[in-house]
Amino acid sequence: MGSGFFITMVAKIAIITLSILGFYISLYFTFVYYQIVSPSKFLVPKICKLTENTCQMIIYSEYAKLLGLPNFIYGLAYYFAILLFAILESNGYIKTAIAIASWFVVAVGVYLVYILTRVLKVNCLLCFVSHILNFLIAILILLK
């Protein structure tokens, strides 16, 4: 049990933690989008809560969908897949596919951050946190 095992274990725990957090953020956006909860009535830190107008501007914009589905629905599936990957000790082709998918998600995130800041001109802390989570997950997958 050398340092390689320790790094792999820390990466696994971090991936699990980050994927759960990402899933929660995607779930928040899903609940707000489908009007299950108000943006201000969900368990997120006060600094991260969105106002009704800001949230609607983001989640209902033309940029918030890919192939007809809201981005956060893809987020739910992505974070669940990452969680399974971390728990089930996947290697080989599955690890390669997950790594490629993760870096694709990071690339899409760069585009979405541009849209948020330059086109919509909205500073959505939860959005930024989810993009940072995606970047960290992609790096950690390489370490796992």
From TrEMBL:
GO terms for molecular function: oxidoreductase activity; quinone binding. The chain crosses the membrane at residues 6-34, 66-87, 93-115, 122-143. It comes from Kryptobacter tengchongensis. It is a multi-pass membrane protein. It is found in: Membrane. PANTHER family: VITAMIN K EPOXIDE REDUCTASE DOMAIN-CONTAINING PROTEIN, VKC DOMAIN-CONTAINING PROTEIN. Residues 8-144 form the Vitamin K epoxide reductase domain. Pfam families: VKOR (PF07884). One of its GO terms (cellular component) is membrane. Belongs to the VKOR family. Keywords: Disulfide bond, Membrane, Oxidoreductase, Quinone, Redox-active center, Transmembrane, Transmembrane helix. InterPro entries: VKOR, VKOR_sf. This is Uncharacterized membrane protein.
